[in-house]
């Protein structure tokens, strides 16, 4: 008998290419885990005993710096696999995962990863493709931190988040992940002060709305111009004129 989550997760890219009967078998090996808002799924440095697929909600991944500060490094959206340390040869989680809102996920023992990957090659291929995409994104962010102005980095960050978890509303695109300005600053590799200055300027110009952990993009095309730095005229947007 198929589990209630079957028809939801069957649409996830992670399970593309897996036959319905095989997916049913794969799900039968998992258990459902529900984490309340602000609850921790796992901690950085703890033993990687399970891996997860998010069914609904959002997860914030953070790392702790040498001086004890917690930095947001990425968000997990429904359909994504996370905590799959075994796939990259790790025995401990490299980051902390916390539910931003009430979240539901499926989890499997990490010890089963190898056997599941062998039995369902499409699962392994899709998971490694997702992990590779994250690594590529991380490399791009390193290059941006080295070479790009703060405004460009913040614009790129908002556009990435909108692509990951945006929904169209009247007049714009709302990022469904609850975001603090501090999160935007950390993802863009800048200070809270700089992020607030840029977001306030863009809000005054009507490009975005940011407040109460809610961000709406009202003019994605202008943000795209700023992110690419291809239009000299975008300087007036960056300066808030």
Question: Topology of this protein?
Answer:
Elements: H1 6-9, H2 20-28, E1 31-35, E2 40-42, E3 50-56, E4 59-64, E5 70-76, E6 81-82, E7 96-99, E8 103-109, H3 113-119, H4 121-147, H5 150-165, E9 166-169, E10 172-175, H6 181-188, H7 192-204, E11 208-211, E12 214-217, H8 220-228, H9 235-239
Antiparallel strand pairs: 1-8, 2-7, 3-6, 3-8, 4-5, 4-7, 9-10, 10-12, 11-12
Helix pairs in contact: 3-4, 5-6, 5-8, 6-7
- Shape field: globular
How much helicity do the residues have? 40-55%
Unreliable spans: 234-241
Number of domains: 2
Rg calc: 19 Å
Please write the CATH class name of the largest domain: Mainly Beta
Give the topology string: H per helix, E per strand: HHEEEEEEEEHHHEEHHEEHH
End-to-end Cα distance, whole Å, is 61 Å
Biggest sheet layout = 4 strands, antiparallel
What proportion strand? 15-25%
The CATH fourth-level homologous superfamily of the largest domain? Jelly Rolls
Instruction: Provide the residue-averaged pLDDT.
Output: 90
Report strand order across the widest sheet: 1-8-3-6
The CATH topology of the largest domain corresponds to Jelly Rolls
What's the total count of β strands? 12
Question: Pairing-aware structural class of the strands and helices?
Answer: alpha+beta
Number of helices: 9
Write the CATH architecture name of the largest domain.
Answer: Sandwich
């Amino acid at each position: 008998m198929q589990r209630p989550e079957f028809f939801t997760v069957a649409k996830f890219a992670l399970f593309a290419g897996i036959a319905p009967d095989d997916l049913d078998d794969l799900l039968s090996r998992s258990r459902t885990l529900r984490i309340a808002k602000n609850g921790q799924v796992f901690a950085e440095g703890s033993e990687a005993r399970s891996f997860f697929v998010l069914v609904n909600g959002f997860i914030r991944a953070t790392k702790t710096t040498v001086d004890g500060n917690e930095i947001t490094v990425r968000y997990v959206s429904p359909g994504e696999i996370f905590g799959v340390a075994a796939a990259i040869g790790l025995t401990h989680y490299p980051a902390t995962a916390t539910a931003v809102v009430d979240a539901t996920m499926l989890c499997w023992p990490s010890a089963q990863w190898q056997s599941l990957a062998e039995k369902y090659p499409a699962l392994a291929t899709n998971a490694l493709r997702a992990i590779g995409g994250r690594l590529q994104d991380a490399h791009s962010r390193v290059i941006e931190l080295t070479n790009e102005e703060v405004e460009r980095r913040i614009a790129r960050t908002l556009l990435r988040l909108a692509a990951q978890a945006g929904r169209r509303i009247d007049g714009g695109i709302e990022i469904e992940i609850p975001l603090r300005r501090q999160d935007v600053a950390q993802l863009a590799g800048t200070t809270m002060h700089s992020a607030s200055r840029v977001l306030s300027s863009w809000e005054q110009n009507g490009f975005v709305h940011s407040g109460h952990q809610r961000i709406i993009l009202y003019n994605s095309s202008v943000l795209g111009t700023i992110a690419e730095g291809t239009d000299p005229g975008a300087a007036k947007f960056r300066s808030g004129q």
